[in-house]
Every structure is written in structure tokens, then in C-alpha cells.
Amino acid sequence: MPLTTVTNPVKAGSRYLSGNDAAAEGAIAAGCRYYGGYPITPSSEIMEYMSRELVPRGGAFMQMEDEIASISSVVGASWSGAKAMTATSGPGLSLMQECLGYAAFTETPVVLVDVQRAGPCTGQATKVGAGDIMAVKWGSHGDYQVVALSPWSVQEMFSLTVEAFNLAERLRVPAFLLAEEATGHLRERVDLPETLEIYDRDYVPKQPPFGCDEADGIPSMPGFGMGENLLVTGSTHDQWGFRKTEGPAFHDSLVRRLSQKVLSRKAEICRHEGYYLDDAELVVVAYGFTARAALRAVRQARQEGLAVGLLRLITIWPFDDELITRVAQGAKGFLVPEMNLGQVDGLVRSAAGDTSVKSLTQVNGSTISPASIMTALKEMR
Amino acid sequence: MTERKEIRLAGLGGQGVVLAGVLLGEAAVEQGLYAAGSNSYGAQARGGGARADLVLEGQEIDYPHVQQPDLLVAMSQGAYDTYASGVAQGGKVLFDSGMVEPKAPHDRYGAKVTAMALEEFKNRQVANVVWVGLVAGVTGWFQTEVLERTLVRLVPERFAELNKAALAKGLEMGRAWEVA
């Protein structure tokens, strides 16, 4: 089923919202009908909002006993036909990893909002961080793909939550809104649209739910209670869901398809924004809240006559290495400011070719200031 | 107003700093401005430091955090001591003169807001709304009727009249300050 245009069920127009409330409204707008979660700072406002609003809108809300149960219930709800989500932060994400792999391997559309705080471990619960970049992609064992989107504003806490649902449903993968405390707790003007483009899952009766002929295909997804003989397992399975834990060919083709169905569609999934890139010698590659400090710094630098630009990554996973390679061809150097010890820096380096890459890291629980980025840019000249 | 403006409200937990920030932010958006607000407060609900920052602009805001406030409201000595020196050149420092001993001679915008709220309205909790009025009055950045509408939306119905009176008092005082 392609995208359909629907009337936005939440209040449209200019509003003053917090990022977490906007993510919750985005979920409702995208058609989320199940939320299972366990509260954790700094994501709890999403759960509070869903606990109030989901049931009156015909959905179901469940506070689970922990994060393991939360994501398990979300996977179950998705197989019962509901668009489903949970929200958490670093420590909860760690607990969800096993079932995240289950969701990826069983091709279950789920949306996870990770409002990142300063980790590792319990860390500083109320402080900002961006240390989960690699954890959302590599935290569960084996080879699999997820989608992760990085909002830089309250507006995008709404719009990218909608997009996360659309991508999860279309690709049958776990999709992350990889937010940060600074954006989750930011209050900001949003301009919410009257209508939205929504993707509802593809279902063709009596089709195999776990396989198709194409090496990067996305099978039709039935749900429990729809009259199909449905078998969902985390063991290697054939296209009808029967366990095939011995045959090498089954495992090989399944694992490769689960990756290929995402990677072969990178051109459609990956989004970015460029500012002042045309003649930029130095390019700041940034994402999330840090990209806003970077934009401020780049504008200031331009006023001082420096040829600098900003490449803002909206999609983090799958990582758009071709984009980095393309921009690298016109640039002398990249600066990668991050609220972690260089998680995206490594990805940029591997795609930057001969262009030099400087990493600016900050893990003190506060956001990177425009002044820090400005200083780093001047040191690169 | 089209140029970027930065406001910082700072005081103690329980003084209504965060609500005052939300009130100003919501009103600004209803006026058609862009607004970005962020808060900082300790783990304890009352008595710790509390801060509400607000950025206003006529166009989309690139960096949403306050860097050098054009206006500081210091509701406690701690808030004044921490933030007064960070105010932009030509910026204003408003303070509760019943609670704050200013150190810079140019900080002339003092009023005993908490004491006045207690005396005039028999309710110290409306002091934050008096401050909202003061900010609006002294800056001229906010429309009175929009502030009043936003206030009524945000506070419990039975306190609406009390809060409207507190807002009016603040506006009157703020405007007088500007004339002086």
C-alpha cells in the first residue's frame, strides 16, 4: 500500500510544545494504536502523554514491569495488527536489545523513541548525551539493519516520529527516533500540518509472511486473528515461518535479505540538509541538537568571511556514506562535533577519502555550544 | 519584534519560574513569533535553583539556547549572583528587591514582588505572574490580551481572576519603569 494522505488527528497550526509531547503527538498522528513502556528520564513525558491520549483515541496503553516486557509487548501488539511504539533512554535501550534483535529477525514494524541521556550505565539521568548512536545499530547480536532518525527541533520530534512509523511499516524493521534530552525537553514553536502522508502496512492474504523471491524483498505482513496460519519465531525460518535451524541456505538468504531490504533502499530512506555547502572549504558534519549549535557557528563564521558549511544528517541509520564521499570531494576538511566520544566521526572518516576529519567531542552532560564549534573551526584553518 | 531576543528567568524551585517561562513562550507563539524555551532545575521540587530560558525571534530560531540574555529576572540572591554578570551589554536585570541585594549600581529594576504579592493578593504564588507582567511591561514584546488569554488557559479556573489581577499589576509597574 502506498502513502495515503490523511487528516492530521492532532491539533494543526502554530503551537508551543515540548519535544517529548510532539513525539507523542507524532505517534498518534501516524496511527499508533499501542504503547507499552516503562518510564525513564528523560523520555517519561512521552509515556505520560500516551497514557492520557491513546485510549480515548481507540488505542491501548500498558505500563509494563520493565523495558524487556515493554518492547516484547510492542512486538506482540504489532503482530496483532496495531502500529506500536515504546520510548526509553539509554539504560532501557540496553534492556531492550535482545527483543530488538527479535523484532529485526521477525521483520516486525516497531517504533522506538530513544531520548538519549548521559551514559554509559545509569550515568546522569537528567543530562544530555548522544552516546547511543552505535547501540541502536549494533546492540543486538548478529547482522541486521534498523532505521534511525535524528531530530534537531521540536518540529522534527513530530515529523520524524511520523516518518519513523512510515519507514517501520514499509520496510518491516525497527525504526528509531534517536532524540536527545535537549530536544525532548525543549519547548518550541511547531507548525503542524492539516494533513499527513501515512504508510499503512502491506497485507496480501495468503502470501508467505517471511519471504519473497527478490533478494531485497519485503514480504506481506499478516496479523494474528486475520485467518492466516501464522507462526512467528526468532529461530531461522522459511518463508512460512517454519523453523529451519539446520539448512545453511535458509539462514544465508534470510540474513542477507534482512540487510539488503534496507541497504538497497538507502537512496529513498536517507535524508540530509546542507547549509552554505556550495563553496565551503570546511564542512561541519552534525546531527541532532548539536547541528543547531553548528548552524549558529557556521553563520557566525560566514559573517567573519570563513568559507564553512554545515551538512546535517537527518538519517543516521542506514548511514549515508555515499553522501559523505560526495561532499568530501569539494571540501578540505570535516569537523564532526558530537555529544559522545566520536561515534559518527568514525563513520565519516571511513567515507571521507583524503579529506581530513577533526572530531570535537563533549561528554560532560551539557550541549556543545556554538562557541566551541567556532573555536574548533578556526583551529582547522 | 523580529530580532533575536533572549530572556532568562531564574529563582528558586517553587517560585513558578518554569510556568512563567511557558506562559511567555506560548503567548509569543500565539503572537506569531518563534519561541524556544528550556528549563533547568535541581532534583528537588522546592528550594533548589530553577531557571527558565526563552529565545524569541521573528523567524525560525537556529540555536534555541540562551547565550547572553537581553533580560534577566532574578528572583533570588543565588540567581542574581549566578546570572547577572552574563547579561548582554545594554541588557536589563530585573530583581526582587525584597530578596536580592544588587551588586552593580546600574541594576535599577528592583521591586519587592514577593512581598507585594503577599500583601496585595494574599498569595505569594502569583508573584511569578506579576513578573510576567513586569517583563511584558518593561520590554513591550508581548501583547496584553494574548498574555491574558494564555494565562487563563494555563492556570486553574478558580484562580483566573486573581492571576489576571497579578498580571495587570505587573504590566502597570513594568510600564512605569520604562517611563522612568
Structural write-up:
The complex is a heterodimer of chains A (381) and B (180). Chain A has 381 residues and is α/β, with parallel strands linked by helices. Chain A has 13 helices and 17 strands. Chain A has 2 domains: 3-199, 3-Layer(aba) Sandwich (Rossmann fold); 273-380, Rossmann fold, CATH 3.40.50. In chain A, 37% of the residues lie in helices and 24% in strands. In chain A, strands 3, 4, 5, 6, 7, 8, 9 and 15 form an 8-stranded mixed beta sheet that branches. A 5-stranded mixed beta sheet of chain A has the order 12-14-13-16-17, sandwiched between helices. Chain A has a two-stranded antiparallel ribbon with strand order 1-11. In chain A, helix 1 packs across helix 2 (44-53). The longest helix of chain A has 18 residues, at 154-171. The N and C termini of chain A lie far apart (51 Å). By secondary structure, chain B is of the alpha/beta class. In chain B, 41% of the residues lie in helices and 21% in strands. Chain B is built from 6 helices and 6 strands. In chain B, strands 2-3-1-4-5-6 form a 6-stranded mixed beta sheet. The longest helix of chain B is centred in the last third of the chain and has 20 residues, at 160-179. The radius of gyration of chain B is 15 Å and the shape is globular. The A-B interface holds A 14-16, 126, 153, 182, 185-189, 292-293, 295-296, 299, 367, 369-370 and B 21-22, 25-26, 28-30, 32-39, 43, 61-65, 67.
